Protein 1
Amino acid sequence: MTGPVPAEQVSLAVELGPLRLEHPLVDASGTFDLLEYARRYRGDFFADFPYAAYVPKTVTADARTGNPAPRVTETPAGMINAIGLENPGIDAWIGGLPEWAALRRPVIVSVGGNSPDQYAAVVRALEAHLASAPQATAPCIEGYELNVSCPNVASGLQIGADPAATAAVVGACRAETTRFVLAKLTPNVSDVTVAARAAVEAGADGLSLVNTFKAMVLDRETLRPFLGNRTGGLCGPAIKPIALRMVAEVAQALPGVPLVGMGGVMSGLDALEFIACGATAVGVGAANFTGFEAPSRILAELRAELAARGFASPAAARGIALGA
Amino acid sequence: MTAKAADDHVHSEQWAETSHCRVSAVRRFGAFTALELVAPRVAKKASPGQFVMVTVPGGGFLLRRPLSLFTVHDDRAGLLVEARGAGSERLAGLEVGETVDLAGPLGSAFPTQGVTNALLVGGGIGCAPLQYLADELAAAGANVTAAFGFRDFRAARCAGAFAIERLWVASEDGAVGRHGTVMDVLAELDAPPNTVVYACGPAPMIGAVQRWALHEGLRGYASLEAHMACGSGSCHGCVVDTTRGKLRVCSEGPVFALDEVTP
C-alpha cells in the first residue's frame, strides 16, 4: 500500500455494468423516499439527491396494502421490519413517474412478486410505458433490481432461497428488457453462491446482496411475536459481518460480475469494507433512519477512508480482502 | 462534533436536519421526565402536535425515538419522556448540560385557527403534546379545558408536569383525581356545541373519545402514536388504518381528523 493521497484527488466514480455512477453509494430499496424528501427540501432535491443512483421502494404488479402493525422495532445493533411490500401497484406507480422526472440520477427499479409472471408483468408494463412516454415525463430508468425475497406463491418459500425459482424470475424479466438487471439475493440460504450463479446464468447482469435476515422479536410482556407479521427482516450493524462474508463469497465465486454490497452500512469505513470484499456499489439502508445527513456523511467518510489508505479510487480498493 | 460543524447544521436549515441540543433543565415526575432543550431551530418552526426524532445518546441504539413537542418557549423545546425501555430510560436519565441530537419539527400539527372552546383529552404519555397545544390556544384567546387519564398513581405523577388552568385528572386506581377513566370526566363535562376536541393517547381511548364526540356532535382531531423507524416518510413502518386508507403517522400524521381514524 502507498501513502495517503489528498482527499480531493480521490475519484469516487464507479462503473456498475453499463451504469456510470458518480460514486459508489446507492440507497437500499425501501429506505429512502425521494418524493418525501423532495416535497419538504429547501432547494432542488432532484439535483441534490445524495445517492449516485436511486433504488425506489419495491413495486409489484398489483397494489399491496402491506402487513399489520407493528411493522418495525429496534433490536440489538439493528432493527427488524415487516412492511410487506406496501405499494400502489405498477400502473399507479407508472402514473406517478412525471412527479420525479426531474431526478438527475439513474434509477434502478426494484421489482417484487410471487411468481415469475408477476415480476415479468412489472418489467413489461414499465418497458411499454417508457417506449411510448414523451421525453422528460419519466426519470432516467436504467435498470431493474429483482427483489426475490418475496414468498413464492407455489412453494411458500422465499423465491431467492430456491435457485430454480430465482432463475425463473430472472429469465422471465430478462426476456422483457435490455436494461441492466440486478438480482437482489436473500441471505436466508446455506450457500449464497448457488442462487447467485443461478441468477447470473439466467441472465442477470449483476447482483445485489444481502437483503434482510428472517428473524423474530418477542413482546417482552406477552412473550408473543412482536411484529404484526410475526417474523420480519433483520438489518443494521448486527448483520454487517455476515453480509461481508456473503459478498466476498459471491465475488470469489463469480469474478467479474458487478456487485452491489449492503448490510448494516453506517459509515464510510463500512462502505469501504464492502468494496474491499468485491462490491462495486454499496447500498445504504438502515442508516437512512438515523438522520437526514447519513448519505452525505457516509460519502465524505468513504472519500476520507480511501484517501487515508492511498486509494485513488474505489476500484483500487475493490476486492483486496479476497486475496491470500 | 466541533462548534463550527454544529453551526453549519444550524445554517443549512433543512426540514429533517439534525440539531445538537443542550439539555437546559430537567424535571422528574415518577416514570416521566420533562426535558428542556436549547433548540432554536426547532422552536422557530414548530407547531403544536408536531414531533421530533431524538437520537439516544451513547451509541448502541440504532433508531431515533419519536417524541412529541411538550412545550416550546423562545429558543427552548420541551420533551416529556416516559421510561419504557432501555432507550427511553437513557433519554429520561439525561442531565442538565448533556447534549442530544434531534431532527424536526416533523409531521402534521393540530389546527387551531378560529377555535373558541377547546377540549383537550389525554391518556398517559399521550398528554405530552397537549401542553404545547394548550399554550398556543390560550395565547390565541381560546377557552381551554383539559381532561387527562392515567393508569395508576405512578403514571399520574406525570400530571405535575403540566400547567393548564382547567385540568381534570382521572386515575384508574383512584389514587389521583377522579376514580375512573378520562371518559368518566368527559361524561361530567358540559362542552359548548362549538367545542373542538383534541385527543392524544392509547388507541382504545381515541376510539372512546371518537364515539363520545360523535354522540355530542363535536368535531376534533386525534394525534396517534406508532412504532417508527425513519420518522420521515420513507420506511412505511408507522402506517395506521384510516378512512383514507393506510397513512403514515410520521408523514400524513401524527395529527388526523378525529372522524377519519379507525383505532
Protein 2
Amino acid sequence: MLRQTWWKILCVLLLAYTVIGGFLGPVPAKPIVNETIRNLYFHVAMWFSMMVFLTVSAVYAIRYLRRPNHVDDIYSLEYAKAGIVFGTLGLITGSEWAGFTWGAFWSNDPKQLGAMIAMLIYYAYLVFRNGMPDIDKRARLGAVYNIFAFAMLFPTLWILPRLVESLHPGGLGGNPAFKDSDPRMAAVFWGGAVPGWCLLGVWITTLRIRLKLLAEKKLSNI
Amino acid sequence: MYKKFWVLLLSCWMLTLSAMAQNDTTRPVEMADGLRANGKIYVVVMVLVTILAGLIFYVVRLDRKISRLEKENK
C-alpha cells in the first residue's frame, strides 16, 4: 500500500471533485453564512482528516507499547505530525470563517477553546519527545503520551462543546445553519472532501515515513 | 353600507397580509448568483484547480525522488 499508485490517483480525483463540485455545486441559501457554507468542504474536512490521522497515530503507539519496534514509532510520530498540521489548518480556517460570520476571529467559543487545548496538548507531544535524548525512552514515553493526548481529544472536541452553548453545530441551542444537513452537500463532503483530504495527508505522511526509514538505513550502513 | 365597509376592511387586511408575506419571501438570502451569472465563479475554480495541480505536482515529484533514493539504497 505504501508505494502503490492507485490511491494517489484516487486522491487527486477526489480533491478535484471537491474543488470543482464544492464551488459549482448547489448549496442551500442560508442567512449569515451565505456562500461561506462551502467552507464545510475545506474547514470541516480538515478536522475529520485530523481525527483519522491521530487515531492511526494512537494505534501505532499502542502497537509500539505492546511490542517495541522503532518502525511503529516512526509511523506513530509521522501520523501525529500530519494530524497536527491538519488540526492547525482547521483552527486557522475556522477562525477566518468565524471572522466573517460570527463577527469575530476568536470568540472563545467552547469548541474553539477545546480545539485549541487539544492542539496545545499535541504540540507538547512534539516538544516532550524532543526533550529526551535517549531514543528508546523517547519512543516509549512518547507512545504513552500519545495515547493520553488522543484520549483528551474526546472531551475537548466531542463532549464538552456539546454540553454547553456553542456557536458550532451540535451544542445546546446550537447553530441553526446546519440543523438540516443538505443531501446535495453531503455528496461532495463525504464522497469527495473527507476521503480526498485524508488521502492527501496519508500520501504526505507515507513520504515522510519513507524518508525517515531511508535515513535510518543510511545511518545503520555507515 | 356596512357590508361595503367590511369588504373594504377585509381587503385591506389581506393586502397587509400579502405585504407581510412579501417581507419574508421576496428578500432572498444573498448568494453569489451574480458572480455565477457573470461566469466569474469559474475564475475562482480555475485558480484553485491550478493551486491544487501545483501542489499535487510537487508531491508527485517528491514521491518520485524518494522512490529513486529507495532504489539506489536497496
